[in-house]
Specification:
This protein is mostly helical. It is built from six helices and two strands, in the order H-H-H-H-E-E-H-H. The two termini are about 30 Å apart.
Amino acid sequence: MGNGDLSRIRLNSKGMDNILGSPAVVSKLRADAARVAAAARAAAPVDTGEYRDSIQVEVTRPHDRQVARVVARSPHALLVERDTSNLAKALAASVGRSRLNR
């Protein structure tokens, strides 16, 4: 196959939209994000519990794909993240586990 053959590849945008928005993809995305959120909650520093209890999963579709975010909504979440990297560590641990499970 020469390089010229690659110019003939065209993605089916509607088909990709259907796949990326399918219940199976959304379910997997939610499950992965829920694991990260659970790890973040388990490792969260607790004074009043407000930060830990504010950690949640948000799934949106801003453009052509689903996006899952694990967020902390407490007023002091940025300070906690600055001092502990709690959400970042939970995500990093999850990524490491997913690579091992391939």
